[in-house]
Fold these 2 entries.
Entry 1:
Amino acid sequence: MLLGEILIGRGYCTISDIREALRIQKSGDTRRIGQILISMGKITLEDLEGALDIQFKRAIKY
């Protein structure tokens, strides 16, 4: 599962927030999407850590 899907599903940010972060990334920003969302003030570090934990746990099930 993609990080953006988890963040949206948990209510931490919106699809518009994800699209904006991806736009910033595509314009040459080398930061990861989570870092961009934090700098935008859309999520907290704790939100990101929780979403990454979910993503990791789902990945190791496969």
Entry 2:
Amino acid sequence: MVETVFKTIKNELIWRTSFQTRRAAELALGRYIDGFYNPRRRHSALGYKSPTSFEAEMAITE
């Protein structure tokens, strides 16, 4: 599963971006993971729902 995450990050961010510095790459990666991948990106393992939506549904059903 981790390899899939890394492949997705590379495909959606790393390979599409030209970074001027290592620091710029680190900041972009952090923003991508914390701002998009974790809270908003739809995940097949969650029934193609975002983690935020999935967690909200689970809170209602529990």
